[in-house]
């Protein structure tokens, strides 16, 4: 039986307000891992047979801040799997891994997977339903893309924008945190659909990227706007048909005022609120009724079944660039 | 040409905070109406030929408070028709009327209609698309029902609950302002669908009615609850699958904390906010994302085409009681 050191990123304690470097630490001395599962099947708490993986790529995403503290009213039943990080244990996130051993019928040694794994070199995965097999021989794209555009990040953008917001050519689309991993893809998918797309972000460098590289029609720095309602009216004089919300709070409140009749909002995340002691109050909800808006909160975890459809959509674009 | 006095309910001035008796007045001395349209077709600002009606029944509804003042960001384009009442002119609302004369091909003298009309005895209707013909010979129900359960009130309950919330047998349903015209019907339709239904209201008499007459499984007086979150957890220990929101504000905020995964919210109105100078801040929106909730704001005006389907659904129940 092979034993190796297993470098891990550990949460020291639950985090309040802004996370600090010292909230996490790396250990590589005490943990060890068996590359082979024992001969008998391990039936885990999720009632699935376990899988051992070697982690290859990890993605750092905003929701990870959320799970660094307990959230009232949210528990394991909310996501049908572990939610909060455990102080003293490695944090988890989306990544790409290679299966080393498996008791699960869907996976065998040598398989490549993307999905939820731990921030460590080797992981015992007790919820293999959170893993998705990569059919890598079908594509020529770098494997690391499955920790980004071809994995949860891309699927999040696709599901939230395409499946929930039903974009039509010529519609006006607004994306907040538009230079983030998901936001920049939403904008690019929106352009592929023939929409007019404006993004917001918080630095000049990000705004330049949105306009010069990611193909947004326009972009603005929300930190330079004294009145977000005025800013949105400047870019959307005819109203916003689709809003992809990554930030919540004051921006969402201003968007409500500027939505078009029968507009759609994808609720992906609300990062402006994660580090606050108390969330900000949002006051313009009545505009959801006035304008007959559909707000759809979602998590990509519910939509892994759409991944093949998403790949059919996105891979040709990526392969045409390689 | 016949001239008659036309009693009218007039808005004196735009209303702020709580409306007072003196905000409206009745006049019956100065106005007059011609029973016959002139021989040439009147093409109105809505580009529809006009109709003259005699109003028979009028419904008094919460949204009428909204339109007693101008709302920033809401105008005629929002509803494709007049929104705000005009000080010095009669207010409008849903009602039942008899057509006296018509240049519109869909209506002729003697037709009975339900829809938007003015609070006066006789009205020149310049937006006849807001009128719906009543096929009264098909039913034995009192004509006044088309100002309530068989008109906009019933259709609102049906569309919001049945069409937007897709109820399934056994689901847990919460209705606020449950003793109101729409709320009491939502609860009764939910019971017909086999749901568990709890309502909130603001007096003991209303709570008694909800439990003893309208068939709600339970009901509570929100004014007697110091903590709405605690109250909702008492009635929905397993969470709320469907919330029919008539009130907004603090109740909506508490509901967000208690929604079940993949729950649905019909945004019908937010009466708790209409008389406030500034709307209250709602802080728990992130639960729309955690629980992957669909919030659907709506107005019955968009869904008149569902009225025949609604009648097919509701009339047998009503006729069985007559």
From TrEMBL, chains A, B:
Enzyme class: oxidoreductase
Oxidoreductase among keywords: yes
KW Oxidoreductase (keyword) present: yes
InterPro entries for this protein: ADH-like_C, ADH_N_2, GroES-like_sf, MDR_fam, NAD(P)-bd_dom_sf
Keyword annotations: Oxidoreductase
EC number: 1.-.-.-
SUPFAM superfamilies, alphabetized: GroES-like, NAD(P)-binding Rossmann-fold domains
Molecular function per GO: 2-alkenal reductase [NAD(P)H] activity
Domain Oxidoreductase N-terminal, first and last residues per copy: 32-133
One Pfam family hit: ADH_N_2
Source taxon at top rank: Eukaryota
Domain Alcohol dehydrogenase-like C-terminal: start-end pairs: 181-313
PANTHER family (alphabetical): ALCOHOL DEHYDROGENASE-LIKE C-TERMINAL DOMAIN-CONTAINING PROTEIN, PROSTAGLANDIN REDUCTASE
Full protein name: Putative oxidoreductase
Native source species: Rosa chinensis (China rose)
